[in-house]
Write a structure and sequence with these properties.
single chain, Rossmann fold, seven-stranded mixed sheet, 38% helix
């Protein structure tokens, strides 16, 4: 897809073994040298395009946390896992990470099926911060979500496109797993609320080899005003190339809800006419905080660093969130951290965020593709996450 990204491949090793966890993890004694942070980023698989920026942004956050005194007075070190594994493999890796590597908390950016498997494996024994946009509804104990929710990401964008362009007839296409399926349940509610109509819905398996020509043929026959896309990584790239290759970009608009700078680069300028994205972060966001974040990133990694994108910026914010949680709680004890989470303030790429119900209200941006860049056309300030997790 992008030869520069391939040259920046990230490798991660994990210890062997698959023993079951039998007791809660606790922070190590004050004499130990470091707090261990487990990470699960997309180093392999369909979303591996995001791994380098996730890894780099997290390294920047850890540098900043350590420079400010670390967590509970200790420096933070990273134990890297692969969020691109299958759900079963990720569960076993999370068990090994917690039992053998004795991580004190985990930050993850990967698909929702892997999230569910990791949560089932660690059983709340260490705090788990989940950072990428998702379908909503995650309230597992000792789990904290800094991601965009459907009420934030999808509802304002669909309403705005309908108001701007009259996009009443909508075709849904996504990958065949929990995030697109659950997300589309919410999207259907939002579309029905403004009197819209679903004219088609289909799901493709995750992975290489999807060409999407048949799907595009079905979309052309259905003649929607808008295609709502919940495809991941390479599948998103291939679909949008095929869509434009059939000439549909001149008459049908598209809203992709996992479209950031890296994926757009893969799609290409020639295939991005009429293509929109909606998220809480774009590098094009104009704010002093984002300017500072980009400058700090450039200072650490230089011109050869992985390109910035939302999934990296979210991993950066989630790492700061995890540090703030443990510092506020005084430990990684589940009840203490959950109690500390409500009203917690922490650093993000675009300013300070405040956590409520283990989620975060956010500013959201609707952006239109302009070649391989984004032009922000609408901003929605302080959009409520809509989740009701107890603490």
């Amino acid at each position: 897809m992008n030869t520069q990204l391939k040259r920046r491949e990230v490798l991660a090793g994990m210890a062997g073994g698959a023993a079951l966890l039998s007791s809660p993890a606790v922070l190590r004694a004050a004499g130990n040298e470091a707090i261990k942070m487990g990470t699960f980023f997309s180093l392999t698989g369909p979303a591996s395009l995001f791994g380098p920026t996730q890894t780099a942004c997290t390294a920047l956050a850890v540098d900043q946390i350590n420079a400010m005194g670390g967590i509970l007075g200790k420096q933070v070190e990273i134990v890297a896992g692969d969020g691109g594994l299958s759900p079963a493999e990720a569960a076993q890796a999370a068990i090994r990470m917690t039992l053998q590597d004795k991580v004190d908390f985990i930050v993850g950016s990967h698909n929702s099926a892997v999230r569910q498997s990791i949560i089932a494996a660690i059983k709340g024994r260490v705090p788990y911060v989940y950072t990428p946009l998702y379908e909503g509804g995650e309230c597992a104990p000792n789990t904290y979500v800094t991601a965009d929710t459907p009420q934030q990401q999808v509802k304002p964008a669909l309403n705005a496109l309908n108001e701007m362009y009259g996009t009443q007839k909508v075709y849904l296409i996504g990958n065949d797993y929990v995030w697109p399926q659950k997300l589309n349940e919410r999207a259907k509610e939002y579309i029905a609320a403004f009197g819209g109509e679903i004219v088609g819905e289909e799901y493709a398996p995750l992975g290489p080899g999807n060409k999407f020509d048949d799907a595009v043929t079905r979309i052309r026959a259905a003649a929607p005003d808008l295609v709502f896309i919940s495809l991941v990584g390479g599948d998103n790239v291939n679909f949008n190339r095929s869509f434009a290759g059939f000439g549909l970009d001149s008459s049908i608009r598209r809203l992709s809800v996992l479209l950031e700078e890296l994926t757009l680069f893969g799609i290409g300028a020639e295939n991005s006419d009429g293509l929109f994205s909606s998220m809480s972060y774009f590098t094009a966001v104009e704010s002093p905080e984002n300017d500072a974040f980009k400058s700090q990133y450039a200072a650490k990694f230089g011109a050869d660093g992985p390109p910035l994108s939302m999934l990296g910026a979210d991993a950066y914010s989630g790492t700061h969130c995890a540090a703030a949680l443990l510092n506020a709680a005084g430990s990684n004890d589940a009840s203490a951290v959950m109690s500390a989470s409500n009203g917690l303030s922490y650093t993000t790429a675009t300013g300070t965020a405040v956590m409520t119900n283990r989620h975060v209200n956010k500013d959201i941006y609707l952006a239109e593709c302009n070649g391989v860049a984004f032009d922000i056309v609408k901003s929605f300030k302080g959009v409520a996450h809509g989740e009701t997790c107890s603490v």
